[in-house]
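EI: anyone free to look at a 258-residue chain?
SC: sure, send it
EI:
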Amino acid sequence: MIQAIYPISYLLLLCCLMGKASCQASSLGQERSTPPTHELFDALLKKHVSSDGRVNYTGFIAEKETFQIYLDKLSNNAPDRNTWSREEQLAYWINAYNAFTIKLIIDNYPVSSIQDLKPTLNIPLVNTVWHLKFFKIGGEDASLDEIEHKILRKEFDEPRIHFAINCASFSCPPLLNEAFTAENLEAQLDKVAKGFINDPKRNKIARDKVEISKIFSWFKGDFTKNESLIEYLNRYAQIKINANAKVSHLPYDWSLNE
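SC: here you go
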C-alpha cells in the first residue's frame, strides 16, 4: 500500500512543481513583453500617404513584403495590459487598426470602396466588412470591429480615437502620415482632432450652424459623457460655436481615400 501511494504522491508533487514553474515562466514572459517598434510603419506612411491623408495603395503593394514584416510584429506582440503603459497600448491598437485596414485594401485592390468587400451575408451592425476576421493578434483571429468597439472604445475613455483610426474612406478622418507612438500620443491625438474638426471638407463650422460628420452622430455618446457635443467641438474648433447652434450631419462618402 505504501509503495502504491508513494509514486502517486510523487507524481502529484511533481505536477504541482511543474505547474508553479510554468506559471513563473509565464509571468517572466509577461515581464519581458515589450511593445513592437512602429518605425517601419512610420516610414511607409511617410512615403505612401500625403499630408492630407490620401493613400497610395499601389505604393504599399510595391512594398508588400516590407509591410508584412510590420504586420507580423503586430500579430506576434499583443499588448500586455499588466506591463505596457496606457499610451503604449493605445498607440499599438490605433496603428493595428490602420495597418490592417490598409492590408485589407491592398489584398483586394483595385476596389472603389471598403464597403465593396462586405461578406456575402451582409447584416448591418452584425456581419459587415469590419467583422471579417482576416488577421491574427496573439494567435487569435481578429477583426477591425473588435479593435474599434471591444478594445479602443470599451477599454479606453478616449473619444479622440475616432479621429485617429481610418476606415479607408474619403469622409473618414484623414490617415495620419506617421505612426502613432507612446511618446507622442497626446500631441498626435490633439493634432488629428483639431485637423478633422476644422477640415471644411468633413465639417462645416459656423457660430450659429454646424454641419458635421456622421461620426458625431454614430458615436455621440463617446463625445458627450461629461459635456454637450457643442462643448466638445469647441475644445478644438477654431470658430467657437454658440450653445444653441443648429446641428445637422453631412452625407458620408465611402469612396476609397486614394
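EI: The longest helix spans residues 2-32.
SC: 👍
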